[in-house]
Write a structure and sequence with these properties.
Length: about 90
Amino acid sequence: MTPLLRTLGVLSLLELASVVVLLGNLATVHDDRVTSALGPAHGALYLAVAAVALLGRSLTPRTRIGALLPLLSGPLTLVNVRREARSA
């Protein structure tokens, strides 16, 4: 696995984890402290995934487009990164 794919995979996993925690917080206790702490972190992770996917070389268009879809960018990018790692 190339460093680009590894970085994109880690960022996607972190972004997916942050959105799961945010949605879990919304569905249960809806603590404003969790939202105010994790909301900006999730936004930054989403932007990092999008920037790495758009600026990274040798990525398929499927990976680039999947990284831009809100809420689905984490899982889609993880699947696409694994697919690209197998084919490389």
